[in-house]
């Protein structure tokens, strides 16, 4: 089903750094039947001559539109900016620049929008493709405990309404009417994480539907390195604290993370080290408690993985969890008791940089570009039929 024949759907590929995965994303969308005229390459970094040239080249090559923010924006603020530039109705699909749509994504998006008058948000699973970075490995192994992938395995064809799982903003469809009514990004979330989850929970509370669709699937080419993993972990902790303040038990019913468990285990480590130094050195062996708890809590993540990857996970995962917990604690302590919040400040442009290409790609062009991600540098994890976790039983990790 071509994108032009269905509901008013705009596909926005959001990029801040213009990575190499942009071309596979655009190739996958075009091969899947998406109309290039309804695809927007959405550049959110600060304007520069090099970025302008790179965007123009991709725009000309693939026949897509381009929209550039007037200044550098974080992801939540940027999504709100794009919503503000659109008409009062229709839908915007947001794809991060490391999420490559799988075959059938376009049809799933159109089906979701066709029955989506009172649906504020639709989201789908992201199947990790393990990259070279430590962060990529850790997050891929964490995904084995993902509620979204469990839903996708249990309901591969059905739409699940009000799922007890957190959405991932990098693969979502937003109803513009709902985004304008509620504000897509609250001001307190404009420059932090979990802004997408906040919208999910606010929409549900206000009577809008939220849906999960297993066939709205992408491959997630996560390239996080070691330091980037911990920067992101800190932001995640801060965003979780804000969601906990604003949504309380409703947030925790959707979230599998429990920061206080991490704080308790690390407090036990410090206590054991202190007591061991003063009384009995054997008591200091309790310092291994975070590793033991991580092994017990994440047995599914560790099952079948390579020994080196297991050791990396057991050593890095407790520190990542501690970073999330510290970010949570620091932010939660500074938040007031007021649960109210306001939409993110609008950044408007008299004439946003949105232009159509001189010509759309021909059928021969699309044929030559067909195929989504057959030549990948990493292993795929968890997607049925992919040469990843399910097929290799984690042997590739």
Give an overview in words:
There is one protein chain. The chain is an alpha/beta fold. The protein has 16 helices and twelve strands. The protein has helices spanning 22-31, 49-62, 75-85, 105-114, 134-142, 147-154, 176-182, 195-205, 226-247, 249-254, 259-278, 289-297, 299-302, 307-334, 363-369, 389-392; strands at residues 9-15, 39-43, 65-68, 91-96, 99-101, 119-123, 126-130, 159-161, 171-175, 209-213, 218-220, 379-380. The strands form two sheets. The protein has an eight-stranded mixed β-sheet, with helices on both faces. Strands 5-11-7-12 form a four-stranded mixed β-sheet. Strand 1, helix 1 (22-31) and strand 2 form a beta-alpha-beta unit. Helix 8 runs parallel beside helix 9, helix 9 (226-247) packs across helix 14 and helix 11 (259-278) packs across helix 14 (307-334). It is globular.
Quick description:
By secondary structure, the protein is of the alpha/beta class. 45% of the residues lie in helices and 13% in strands.
Helix content: 40-55%
Number of strands: 12
Determine the number of helices (DSSP H or I, runs of at least 4 residues): 16
* Estimated share of beta-strand residues: 5-15%
Q: How far is the N terminus from the C terminus? A: 36 Å
Give the overall pLDDT as a whole number.
Answer: 81
Q: Specify Rg, calculated over alpha carbons.
A: 22 Å
- Give the helix/strand class: alpha/beta
Q: Quick one: biggest sheet?
A: 8 strands, mixed
Low-confidence stretches: 337-345, 348-379, 387-397
Morphology call: globular
Order of helices and strands: EHEHEHEEHEEHHEEHHEEHHHHHHHEH
Order of strands in the sheet with most strands: 3-2-1-4-9-6-10-8
